[in-house]
Amino acid sequence: MRLRTRERCRNRRASGTDSRFRCDQTVGNVADVIRRRVTDGTYAPGTRVPSVLAVPAEFGIANSTPPKVHRGLRAEGLIHTQHGTGSFVPPQSPEDLTGAPPDA
After folding, report:
1. Which one of 10, 11, 17, 39 has the lowest number of neighbouring Cβ atoms within 10 Å?
2. Has this prediction a pTM greater than 0.85?
């Protein structure tokens, strides 16, 4: 019998066997992680961000959540999507995305 997702989360968290598996991630939490990766330079300008198919595996979330995450990040201008190619960080510096003034 398959365990439900929450039960799998609890079991993995308790045993500490799978550190990549993150449970109970909401749209906001996942968007915050991707937003941080864009602004801190982990995803450099022009770099492809995880696809809507890769996000559920990385964060342990439902398949219906990543389109909402991507939609929000697109609205903020942090990513742009090319149909059939993927979503990318726009070709601008992370400082431009955070609104911080350039060093003089």
Report:
1. 17
2. no
DSSP letter assigned to residue 51: P
| Alpha-carbon distance values, 53 to 23, 57, 67, 91, 101 (Å) | 17, 8, 9, 23, 35
C-alpha distances out from residue 100 to 27, 92, 93, Å: 26, 13, 11
Going by C-alpha positions, the residue among 42, 52, 45 that lies closest to residue 78 is 45
Residue 12: band (very low, low, confident or very high) from pLDDT cuts 50, 70, 90:
low
Q: For residue 27, what are the contacts with CB-CB under 8 A and spacing of at least 6?
A: 65, 68, 69, 72
Question: Residue 94 is which amino acid?
Answer: P
pLDDT(16) > 80: no
Q: What is the pLDDT of residues 27-71, one digit of tens each?
A: 888 999 999 999 999 999 999 999 999 999 888 888 988 999 999
